[in-house]
Write a structure and sequence with these properties.
The chain has 17 helices and 5 strands. With about 375 residues, the chain is α/β, with parallel strands linked by helices.
Length: about 375
Amino acid sequence: MTEKIIGTRLRELRKELGLSQKELSCLLGFKDRQTVSAIETGIRRLSADELLLSMDKLGATLDYFTDPFRLDGKVQFSWRQSGVGKAELCEYEKTASCWIGAYLALSKKTGHPMPFMRHSLNLNKQSKLIDAVNAGEKFAAKFELGAVPARRLASIMEELLGILVLMVDAYRGISGAACRLPDLDVVLIDRGEVAGRRNFDLAHELFHILTWDSMPPDHIENTSETGGGWVEKLADSFAAALLMPRVSLKKYGEWKYLDREALIVRLNDAAEEMEVTSSALRWRLVALGQLTADKARSVPETALYYNGRDSRAETPSLFSRSFLDVLSRGIDQGLLSARRAASLTHLTIEDLNELFSVYKINQAIKL
């Protein structure tokens, strides 16, 4: 297995550097390119000296060649961010890849159930906004998300759609990401965002997962740019309709006749109940024709901060129960040490123990 991993990593690195098998063969002092081909396919082993030479000539680390959790070249990301530097984003992507790689590798080795089929939306780049809205409403109804869809969305994604949802501490400016692998889909959400933003980001990234084949999202989505591209507009329309379906909004009655102060109070109260942001709710009402755009704009943003509350809601726990359960299984079966699990999650062993307890996972790591 190690030989296969090393061979695969050598091939990916060779391609990344733009080298042919013949060029790499010359660089490493092999007689012909067939030697490189045999190493890349796992037929021939790379000796210790050859591995050290490869590290030196190609500028790679031993970890790059041997870590079974790395996903170099196998995962595609679409980041929802604003003002994050390329180097920072690249570094965080490597960290996220390790989490996802560990989950994928350990799931297969511990018998954790993996999704057997992918769900998709019948939408493409020629679809209209109303098509995305209808898709969002239908999704909420089909999966019986109830009066407050945001409350059950993450669990439905993990349990029924097989999409891993991870709550993470992201770099400042990163709100989330959709990730695609050959046999797994993942959504990352910055748990430091307010609840309404987290839920909207989750529904937005779900759209990208469900339409990845028909309209693959950009690697980087800049949320600071007004409007965004057409695919992002479709994603926003889908998310708004999913989280705030017509049937759930009926209970709040008419909006158009409220004066500004009464409108602010109802927006904040309804948004808090729906677990969305007041700002997202007002524009959803505009789209439904229940508020005019002018009246929506008359409400100052400052009146809608934190849905008119004095403080933010509690921050959710790191990662997810599914992720921690797989880590626990891996520790129990000797596939990784507690120290390796703590290093992977950037936690102390004590904090990792506490996180297992939070998710009610019976894993007592000996300190």
